[in-house]
Design a protein that fits this description.
By secondary structure, this protein is an alpha/beta fold. About 30% of the residues lie in helices and about 30% in strands. Its cofactor is pyridoxal 5'-phosphate.
Length: about 270
């Protein structure tokens, strides 16, 4: 049964988060960020599946989606374009890191402006450099969008000194994992591949949806695998698939990249 001890807080309400909340103190929680178009949450089934997986793997009670979906409907408006953030914490309780005997899940809903630069990036593509910050391995958390994002904060901080739109983030074995806030996939000889995310990284909603449309191979990926590809993309649920214009000194034709992906998707849809 869904958890009955569930508190939903909307950012536009006069509510506060407790200073004892485990999400604030320990990063004990998870989140998802969705694109809202004309009052509809895009890829909602995938965002819901992400929330369910995070709750299960982190030992949270089952979420009450009837209540959550009703609250979402009340707070997203009919504006042409918005962003919905759903942040879930384990609430208060427990001694130190120890779990509370009864979990009162807290859910924070925020409706935000859509990033103004995403449309331009989708058209012109992104220039990538390699981040000096590498991701540590933790298989228990691999794939999950937990509240512990300090690695990403450091990655964004390092980007301030780099002349690029985004970065390739590697692990300590120099395997490509992702971009700063997006997945990576590439096309080579009409085959699609993406980094294996069994030790670190996040398997994003857009990538999940792409896997339902195309055969996608998850494998160990080195930087040279990307620079030798026919096309490379970064992707997330807000901006969709954005072609990579360059990786360090390697340049790609973004028009060709767009055409290649469109052709693969069209061919698969015919099957």
């Amino acid at each position: 049964m869904p958890n009955k001890m569930q508190t939903i807080i909307a950012a536009d309400q006069n509510s506060t988060l407790s200073t004892r909340d485990r999400g604030l103190n320990y990063g004990d929680g998870f989140f998802t960020t969705a694109k809202v178009v004309d009052g509809q949450v895009q890829y909602w089934a995938y965002h819901k599946a992400r929330l369910i997986e995070c709750a299960q793997r982190l030992g949270f009670p089952e979420l009450d989606f009837n209540s959550l979906e009703n609250q979402i409907a009340l707070h997203i408006n009919a504006a042409p374009l918005n962003v919905l953030k759903i942040l879930v914490t384990r609430g208060e309780g427990g001694r130190g890191y120890g779990l509370p005997s009864e979990c009162n899940v807290t859910i924070l809903l925020s409706v935000l402006d859509y990033p103004s630069n995403y449309e331009a990036l989708t058209k012109k593509g992104v220039n990538l450099e390699i981040s000096p910050i590498k991701l540590a391995a933790q298989p228990y958390l691999a794939g999950l969008k937990t509240l512990n994002r300090l690695e990403q904060v450091l990655i964004k901080k390092a980007m301030q000194t780099q002349n690029c739109d985004d970065v390739l983030v590697l692990d300590y074995n120099n395997n490509v994992i992702e971009a700063s806030a997006a997945n990576i996939f590439a096309i080579k000889n009409k085959c699609v591949f993406t980094p294996l995310l069994d030790e670190c990284g996040i398997k994003g909603v857009y990538l999940q949806s792409l896997c339902d449309k195309l055969p996608v191979e998850f494998k160990r990926v080195k930087v040279e695998d990307l620079t030798q590809a026919d096309a490379v993309f970064v992707c997330n649920s807000l901006m969709g698939a954005v072609p990579v214009k360059s990786i360090e000194q390697q340049v790609f034709n973004t028009d060709d990249s767009h055409a290649l992906l469109t052709k693969l998707l069209a061919k698969e849809a015919e099957c």
